[in-house]
C-alpha cells in the first residue's frame, strides 16, 4: 500500500498562499505588506480552483504565489519596517510619560531612511526595461504634479513630481523625441520615442481638482514613492547620454513666479565652453534658424514663401549632413540587423532620421505668441519640442521667460482661443500705423484687434500639424471658424469601417446610397406638395383656369351627340390601325408588338394623369420618377439575389466545417456584423449632420 499524501502539501494548495498567511509569515502589518508588494512588483494571483488552493473551509479571496512570499523573506526593507515599528513603540512610550521633547528627538534622529535603489536595479536589469515601464509612472507623476497640496498629498511630494516631470520634458525638447499628441476628455495624451521605445502617458488639464472621499491616497502615495525613484534614475541616464549635467540648475525666483520650463538652466558636462558634439550641433542649428528667420521677415511676403520652399530645405539638408559627421549619442542609436546568408535579401534597417528631422524642423522658422486664454504650458512644450525656439506669452501675470510681447513685429503666428477678431481700422494718416521705429512696437492699438503681418490660429492647429507631420492650412483654424474633427493619431481606419476623413460617398454601401436617394426623393416630393397647396405654380393651371375649362366643357345635347359620333369614328380608325399592326384572330398581340402597345398605353395614361392634374390645379406627377423607381427596384432585386446566392454558398460551406470551427466562424461573423452596424450608425449620423448643415464635410 502506497504512502498516503497529506492534504495541502502538493498541487494548488502548495503553490498558492492566502494574504493572511503571507502577513503572518512575514510578521509585518497589512499596510507594510501592501507597500512591500508594490515596491517589489508582486501582485495577487487567481488560481484555477479556489477551493483546492484554500487550506480551510472558509473560501479565501486573495492568493499569492508561495515562491513570491518566500522571495520577500530576504528583502532588506523588512528590517526597515521593523525598525519603524520599534521606533513607533518608543515614541508612544515617551508621549505616554509626557516627554514630548524626547519623542521629537527620537523621531528626528532615529527615523530609518528607506531607499529603493536596489529594487530599481532588481526589477529593471537594463535601461530598455525601465523605458518600457514608463507609461504608468509618467501618468501618475503628472497627475500628482497637478494636484493641490492637502493632508493626503504633502506639498513636498507635489514639488518633487513637478521637478521630475519638467526635467523629463526638457530632455524631450532637447532631443526632439516627442512624436504625437492628442486632446481628449481625460486630458492630453503624449507619445515619445526614446531609444526605439514608444512611451505614452496622460497629462490632466489644469482645472481645480477635487479629491473624492473614496480614494485611497496611501496606496497612490506608495506608487508615487516608487515612481519618483524610477524617474530619477531614468532622467539621470537620459541627461548623461546627451552630455548634460544632472540635475539641472533651478532658479527659485523664476519658479515662484511661474516660469516652469524656463526656470531650469541646462549645463554641459566638463569645463565651461567645451560642449559635447550634440550640444555644439544644437547651438549651431539654433543660430542658423535665428538668422534664417530674420532674413525671411525682412523679405516681402511673396519672396518669403518661395524662400521657405527652397533655402530652408537646402539648409536642412546641410544640417543633416553635418549631424551625420558627428558621433551620434547612445539615445538615438538602433540595432542593425545583419543577414547570416550572403545570398539572402537585404534586410531593412531601422532609422529615426526622418522622424527626428520632421520633429526638429516643423515650427523652427516661426515666432509664436500665446494669448492669455490659451493653455501656455502644453503649447510651449509642444512648440519647443518640434523646433520652435521663439515662444512668447503675456507677462502681465508675472510669468518670466517669454521671448517677446504681443506687440512685437517679429511674431509670425499668434495662437488665440476666442471669437473672431476684427481687422484693424484704417489709419488716420497716410503713413499707416503709428509705430516706434527704434523698438518696432505698435504704440496705439485696440485690445481685441488683429495686427497685420501675422497669422491667427486656434490651438488645435498645433496638435493637428504635429500629428500630420506637416503644417496644416491656417485658414481652417482661423479664430471663430468651425474646426475640422480632431482625430486620435493612434486609431487607424479599417476596411469597411467608418473613416471621418473620407467623404461619405466613397465609404457608404450601395444599400445606404439607395436608401439615402429614396429619402431625398421623398423629401423633395413632400416639399413640392406643400408648395403646391394653396399656391399657383408657374406653368400649371390654377383654380381660375380650371373653372374656365369646366365652363367650356358644358355644351348642349346636340354637340354631345357629335362628340360621341366623332369618338366612334376615332375608335374605328384605331381598330383598323391595330388590325394592320398584326392582331391575331383572338384579338391579342404577340412578342414585341404587345410590349410596344403596353408602353404606349402607359405613356398615354401618364399624359392623361398630367392633364387631369393641371385641370385641378395640382402639381403633375412626372413619369420619370416611376422609371427611376423601377430601375432602382430592378437593381435592388438583382443585388439581393446575388447576396442571397452568396449567403446560400456560405451556408453550404458551413455544413462541411467541424463544429468547433463553425462556432468560431459564427462568432467572427457576429463580431463583424456588430462592427458594420456601428459604422453604419456613424455614417447615418454624419449624413444627418451634413443635411442639416451643422458641420462642413471633412477635408
Automatic annotation (TrEMBL):
Compositionally biased region (Acidic residues): 509-537
Compositionally biased tracts (Basic residues): 655-664
Subcellular location: Nucleus, Nucleolus; Nucleus, Nucleoplasm
Region (Disordered), start-end ranges: 418-445, 508-555, 579-699
Molecular-function annotations in GO: ribonucleoprotein complex binding; RNA binding
CDD domains named in the record: BRCT_pescadillo_like (cd17709)
Organism superkingdom: Eukaryota
Entry-linked InterPro entries: BRCT_dom_sf (IPR036420), PES (IPR010613)
Annotated function: Component of the NOP7 complex, which is required for maturation of the 25S and 5.8S ribosomal RNAs and formation of the 60S ribosome.
Complexes and interactors: Component of the NOP7 complex, composed of ERB1, NOP7 and YTM1. Within the NOP7 complex ERB1 appears to interact directly with NOP7 and YTM1. The NOP7 complex also associates with the 66S pre-ribosome.
Protein name: Pescadillo homolog
Organism for this UniProt entry: Friedmanniomyces endolithicus
Lineage: Eukaryota, Fungi, Dikarya, Ascomycota, Pezizomycotina
Gene: NOP7_2
Amino acid at each position: 500500500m502506497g504512502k498516503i499524501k497529506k492534504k495541502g502539501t502538493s498541487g494548488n494548495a502548495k503553490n498558492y498562499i492566502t494574504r493572511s498567511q503571507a502577513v503572518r509569515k512575514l510578521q509585518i502589518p497589512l499596510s507594510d505588506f501592501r507597500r512591500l508588494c508594490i515596491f517589489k512588483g508582486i501582485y495577487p494571483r487567481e488560481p484555477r480552483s479556489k477551493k483546492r488552493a484554500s487550506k480551510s473551509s472558509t473560501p479565501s479571496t486573495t492568493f499569492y504565489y508561495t515562491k513570491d512570499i518566500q522571495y520577500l523573506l530576504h528583502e532588506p526593507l523588512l528590517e526597515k519596517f521593523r525598525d519603524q515599528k520599534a521606533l513607533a513603540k518608543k515614541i508612544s512610550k515617551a508621549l505616554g510619560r509626557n516627554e514630548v521633547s524626547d519623542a521629537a528627538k527620537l523621531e528626528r534622529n532615529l527615523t530609518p531612511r528607506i531607499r529603493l535603489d536596489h529594487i530599481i536595479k532588481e526589477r529593471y536589469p537594463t535601461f530598455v526595461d525601465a523605458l518600457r515601464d514608463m507609461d504608468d509612472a509618467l501618468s501618475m507623476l503628472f497627475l500628482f504634479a497637478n494636484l493641490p497640496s492637502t493632508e493626503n498629498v504633502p506639498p513636498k511630494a507635489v514639488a518633487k513630481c513637478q521637478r521630475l516631470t519638467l526635467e523629463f520634458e526638457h530632455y524631450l525638447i532637447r532631443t526632439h523625441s516627442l512624436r504625437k499628441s492628442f486632446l481628449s476628455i481625460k486630458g492630453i495624451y503624449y507619445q515619445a520615442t526614446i531609444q526605439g521605445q514608444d512611451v505614452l502617458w496622460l497629462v490632466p488639464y489644469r482645472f481645480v481638482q477635487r479629491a473624492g472621499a473614496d480614494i485611497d491616497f496611501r496606496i497612490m502615495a506608495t506608487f508615487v514613492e516608487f515612481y519618483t525613484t524610477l524617474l530619477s534614475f531614468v532622467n539621470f541616464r537620459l541627461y548623461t547620454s546627451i552630455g548634460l549635467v544632472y540635475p539641472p540648475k533651478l532658479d527659485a525666483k523664476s519658479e515662484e513666479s511661474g516660469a516652469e520650463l524656463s526656470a531650469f538652466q541646462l549645463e554641459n558636462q566638463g569645463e565651461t565652453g567645451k560642449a559635447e558634439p550634440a550640444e555644439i550641433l544644437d547651438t549651431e542649428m539654433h543660430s542658423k534658424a535665428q538668422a534664417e528667420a530674420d532674413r525671411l521677415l525682412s523679405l516681402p511676403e511673396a519672396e518669403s514663401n518661395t524662400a521657405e520652399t527652397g533655402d530652408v530645405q537646402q539648409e536642412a539638408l546641410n544640417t543633416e549632413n553635418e549631424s551625420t559627421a558627428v558621433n551620434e549619442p547612445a539615445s538615438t542609436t538602433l540595432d542593425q540587423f545583419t543577414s547570416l546568408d550572403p545570398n539572402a535579401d537585404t534586410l531593412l534597417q531601422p532609422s529615426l532620421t526622418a522622424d527626428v528631422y520632421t520633429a526638429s524642423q516643423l515650427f523652427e522658422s516661426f515666432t509664436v505668441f500665446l494669448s492669455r486664454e490659451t493653455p501656455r504650458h502644453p503649447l510651449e512644450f509642444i512648440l519647443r519640442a518640434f523646433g520652435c525656439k521663439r515662444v512668447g506669452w503675456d507677462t502681465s501675470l508675472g510669468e518670466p521667460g517669454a521671448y517677446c510681447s504681443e506687440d512685437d513685429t517679429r511674431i509670425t503666428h499668434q495662437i488665440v482661443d476666442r471669437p473672431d477678431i476684427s481687422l484693424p481700422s484704417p489709419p488716420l494718416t497716410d503713413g499707416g500705423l503709428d509705430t516706434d521705429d527704434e523698438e518696432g512696437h505698435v504704440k496705439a492699438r485696440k485690445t481685441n484687434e488683429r495686427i497685420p503681418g501675422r497669422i491667427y490660429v486656434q490651438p488645435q492647429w498645433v496638435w493637428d500639424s504635429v500629428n500630420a507631420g506637416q503644417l496644416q492650412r491656417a485658414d481652417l483654424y482661423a479664430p471663430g471658424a468651425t474646426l475640422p474633427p480632431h482625430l486620435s493619431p493612434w486609431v487607424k481606419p479599417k476596411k469597411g469601417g467608418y473613416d471621418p476623413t473620407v467623404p461619405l460617398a466613397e465609404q457608404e454601401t450601395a444599400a445606404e446610397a439607395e436608401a439615402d436617394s429614396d429619402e431625398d426623393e421623398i423629401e423633395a416630393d413632400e416639399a413640392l406638395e406643400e408648395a403646391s397647396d394653396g399656391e399657383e405654380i408657374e406653368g400649371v393651371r390654377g383654380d381660375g383656369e380650371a373653372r374656365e375649362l369646366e365652363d367650356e366643357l358644358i355644351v348642349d345635347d346636340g354637340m354631345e351627340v357629335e362628340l360621341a359620333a366623332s369618338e366612334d369614328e376615332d375608335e374605328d380608325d384605331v381598330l383598323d390601325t391595330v388590325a394592320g399592326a398584326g392582331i391575331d384572330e383572338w384579338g391579342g398581340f404577340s412578342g414585341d408588338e404587345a410590349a410596344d402597345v403596353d408602353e404606349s398605353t402607359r405613356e398615354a395614361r401618364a399624359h392623361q394623369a398630367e392633364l387631369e392634374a393641371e385641370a385641378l390645379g395640382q402639381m403633375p406627377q412626372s413619369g420619370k420618377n416611376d422609371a427611376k423607381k423601377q430601375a432602382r427596384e430592378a437593381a435592388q432585386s438583382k443585388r439581393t439575389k446575388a447576396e442571397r446566392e452568396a449567403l446560400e454558398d456560405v451556408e453550404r460551406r458551413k455544413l462541411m466545417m467541424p463544429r468547433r470551427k463553425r462556432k468560431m466562424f459564427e462568432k467572427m461573423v457576429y463580431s463583424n456584423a456588430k462592427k458594420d452596424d456601428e459604422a453604419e450608425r456613424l455614417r447615418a449620423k454624419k449624413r444627418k449632420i451634413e443635411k442639416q448643415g451643422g458641420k462642413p464635410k471633412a477635408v
